[in-house]
User: Fold this.
Amino acid sequence: MIARLAVRSLLLGVATLPDGHVIAVGERGHVLVSTDAGQTWRQSPAPVSSTLTAVYFADATHGWAVGHDETILRTEDGGRSWQLSHWAPEHQAPLLGVWFDAAGHGIAVGAFAAVYRSEDGGRTWASAPFEPAPLPGTKPPSKPRTADPMADDEGIAQPHLNAIAGDGRGHVYVAGEAGHLYRTDDGGAHWYALPSPYAGSFFGLLPLEGDVLLAYGLRGHLYRSEDAGGSWTQVATGTEALLAGGARRADGTIVLVGLAGVVLASHDGGRSFQLLQQSNRKGLAAVAAVPTGIVVAGDGGVKAIALAPRGPGG
Assistant:
């Protein structure tokens, strides 16, 4: 249904298209489209009312959204209309992330280690085995030390897979609960379990230049890798809020967002961050870059936030 206040509803995913349009998705199957960098929005009809959790576009026309009830939607017109590709409410589980390459090969991930693959641009999907092997050249991932029983991953045989991201150079990464991190180098045919620096859940990954990668999640924990996830260094964030989304702007600024209105900005490749706390403290679930700054989605809906241009000295 078209809802007059959809722009203020709970929105969980946002993506910027190459043509500058922005797409946001969220509860009740809401899909919103902006053609002016997030200043105004219109709702696109969707074929489901299930909550949508993530959205991804491979180019200006081809996009996919995933959500609860194992929903997968696809669009071939830049988000103006959507078709239902997969829906399995009987599984009572959400899909939480989706990624595609330029050739139309895609992967969707979700709760209880669910992995689906598509070879035809998202028209059809098939459940895929998920049996990660240790990353070559490393020891099998050991259980990270923690004094927090809530971060204990013992006994979790099928961890939730919370997010997926590709670097455009062959590596595709997945962030999971209880400290689980994974990588595939062949489009999901084989998976590697990466050594993890933290026992708490990760909710996002942001590939940068080369093999640089950021992984972020519970309690403001943020880690940086320079070898495609083979080793990690912790980065101070100045917050204990859950970090849920990340984006890189054209000028190189890296932005992460999270609960309690947290916005983090880096101008040095993710080695350090400045905390920009939003005054309304509403939780932020996702962020996308636009020329004037960023567009964020979360508890308060979707909105644009202006960021000061990066100066010559950074």
Remarks:
- DSSP finds no helices and 28 strands in the chain.
